Amino acid sequence: MSTRPFAVDPFDIVVFGGTGDLSRRKLRPSLYYRDRDGQIPAEARIIGTSRSEMGREAYARDIEQAIREYVPAEHLDDTALRRFLARIDQVTLDAKSLTGWKTLSERLAEHPERIRVYYMATAPDLFGPLCAHLAKANLITPVARVVLEKPIGHDLASAKEINDCVGSVFEEEQIFRIDHYLGKEAVQNLMVLRFANLLFEPLWNSGRIDHVQITVAERIGVEGRGGYYDKSGALRDMVQNHMLQLLCLAAMEPPGAFKATAVREEKLKVLRALKPFAPADVDHKTVRGQYRSGAADGEAVPGYLEEIESGASNTETFVALKVEIENWRWAGVPFYLRTGKRLALHASEIVIQFRDVPYSIFNNEAGALAPNRLIVRLQPDEGVKLTLMTKNPAPGGLRVREAPLNLSFADTFKVRFPGAYERLLMDVVRGDATLFMSRNEVEAAWAWIEPIIEAWQAQSEPPKSYSAGSWGPSAAIALIERDGRTWWDDEK
């Protein structure tokens, strides 16, 4: 089976915020990999912008430094790197003034027929001004696209304002709102698992599934992002986008085709079917926490308040929610979501917990039966695990035990999987918006999240404290255990 990447047409990509952290850690390595693997055509150019004067040579050196820092040595190819750096150009411009836009126009005018990708690796408040300048400079062509990084706003009103500003310049089909979780191999495989295998979809409903768990756990703290994170918190930073998108893919109805319009429509239906949180619900269906000092990998680590400049904050670094979907397929099936920083593991997974068998034919000596469980691992070891009951291969009487069928993508396919940004960047060039969020999705997610934010702000109680290196506050355990269930923590 061929793993050769699909070719794309010649393009120019302009990265606004070309010297920022996102560009260094994600965009530059991703574009290098695609170039190294032969997916980027020879004519393509990468143009970075910055407010400070750099020049092409200095910018290329900065890019090379980032690639050598974030790309493993075994993946570096000096010939490919030289070819990649030859594509680089740099323009000095100011997002809020006319400075530099003439220079950018002149560079792009050299190849007016090419696909143009404008990547907004900037703060969200610059999305509108940058798009307005692109329009004034006549830089938007029929084959231009704009990529918006999250967060798209900090609430529903600001999200609508950003969408209005960008939408006044670009058509909706030209706007790519990126959520890198949707580019992960295992996330896309969830759709293949559901809709390409007859085995699962007939069981994918309230009649056979007891509940669903979605966990996105990080071992790191705010890592120098305290200024941004303290204004955001885990609910805005993770739940409103990443986790709700994962929930949509797990819960949506089969789309008519694997195409942008069909997939987005089904995801939007899920978001609109989420049961709203009344103020009384927030107290017993949500948990917010904040890590204090503790231990990670055997070393002492500081608490959140020690990592931020202010030293005092009610910003949550952990969230757990009990979510309900009000539709025919999922009525009565709770979705438990949790995410946080400084947790016990770095892991992201979706757990589909099936119901118990209706009756056991085995006697008590055989042992207790455990319900089947499907675990989709998103990171760090992408794969799928299905737990089954099987006979314990021992002499004497019959004993049953739980055993996993484990599909590790790395062991099975033995190829390097492109990173999420690699895949999504090439999708933008192709004009394929299937793995990107629509305007309606973004705004529906904010509309559902806002009552939780408002209820928390109305409370005088601070976030519940938890020790770094744990699985969050004890209230998160109580959230699920009072329903007679427990969190799945696969530490093997």
Categorize the overall geometry.
globular
Q: How many H/I helices?
A: 15
Strand order of the largest sheet: 16-15-14-13-7-12-11-8-17
> What's the architecture of the largest domain in CATH terms?
2-Layer Sandwich
β-strand percent reads 15-25%
Terminal CA distance: 32 Å
CATH superfamily of the largest domain: Dihydrodipicolinate Reductase, domain 2
Number of strands: 17
CATH classification, class level of the largest domain: Alpha Beta
Radius of gyration: 24 Å
Reported for the largest beta sheet, the result is: 9 strands, mixed
- Based on secondary structure, the structural category is alpha/beta
Count of spatially separate domains: 2
Q: Quick check: average pLDDT? A: 90
Helix content: 25-40%
Name the poorly predicted regions: none
Structure, described:
- The structure is a single chain.
- This protein has 492 residues and is α/β, with parallel strands linked by helices.
- The chain has two domains: 11-149, NAD(P)-binding Rossmann-like Domain (Rossmann fold); 182-418 and 438-481, Dihydrodipicolinate Reductase, domain 2.
- Helix content is 36%, strand content 21%.
- The protein contains 15 helices and 17 strands.
- The protein has helices at residues 21-36, 56-70, 78-85, 101-109, 127-136, 156-167, 185-195, 226-251, 260-273, 279-285, 304-307, 409-413, 420-430, 439-458, 474-481; strands spanning 11-16, 45-50, 88-92, 115-120, 144-148, 175-177, 209-217, 286-292, 294-296, 299-301, 318-323, 335-340, 347-354, 373-379, 383-391, 400-408, 464-467.
- The protein has a nine-stranded mixed β-sheet, sandwiched between helices.
- Strand 15 and strand 16 (400-408) form a beta hairpin.
- The longest helix has 26 residues, at 226-251.
- The protein is globular, with a radius of gyration of 24 Å.
- The chain starts with 10 loop residues before the first strand and ends in an 11-residue tail after the last helix.
